[in-house]
Specification:
This protein has 4 helices and 6 strands; from the N terminus they run E-E-H-H-E-H-E-E-H-E. It is α+β, with helices and mostly antiparallel strands. It has one domain. Strands 1-2-6-3-5-4 form a 6-stranded antiparallel beta sheet. The N terminus is likely disordered.
């Protein structure tokens, strides 16, 4: 899914307790693989943040809410896989930790594919994911054009 346009959710899977490995027992998991086709409003609804943005498109307001999050909210571990039209410089990959509280930007072995991960407090996994992608939107100096391909948020 592009940061500019909505895309289809190819697969979304809230993990039921019976499917969860012992290490995930008691955790809530939200994950989706995203495609470039349009999607129905019903498919998109669970991924819309309180500010009206699809989590895969990001939400700068959700990102800014991280800094003022209620300590009583659950802590989410978030992962966002995305592609970029241009390589992200190694220096930028290392500098992300200074820009984002508890964030890391890594490049798996595939060229132009990146993994942005981190932890934040949010009411839902959708808000947590929207905020992490919102970090990229708010910091266009890191990556100016990107397409989100997969999202995941886990909390206990």
């Amino acid at each position: 899914m592009s940061a500019k346009e909505g895309g289809a959710i190819i697969a979304t899977r809230p993990v039921s307790p019976s499917e969860q490995p012992a290490r995930l027992s008691g955790r809530r998991v939200s994950e989706a693989k995203l495609g470039s086709r349009g999607q129905s409003a019903t498919d998109a609804a669970p991924w819309i943040c309180p500010h009206g943005s699809h989590a895969g498109n990001g939400c700068v307001a959700c990102y800014h809410a991280f800094s003022q999050a209620d300590p009583a909210l659950p802590t989410w571990t978030i992962a966002v896989w995305f592609t970029s039209e241009r390589p992200v410089p190694i220096r930028v990959l290392k500098d992300v930790r200074r820009h984002g509280d508890r964030f890391a930007l890594d490049q798996p072995s595939t060229p132009l594919v990146y993994l942005l991960s981190g932890q934040s407090r949010a009411a839902t996994g959708t808000e947590a994911i929207a905020g992490l992608v919102g970090f990229l939107l708010d910091n266009r100096n890191i990556v100016d054009a990107f397409t989100v391909t997969e999202i995941r948020a886990v909390t206990s």
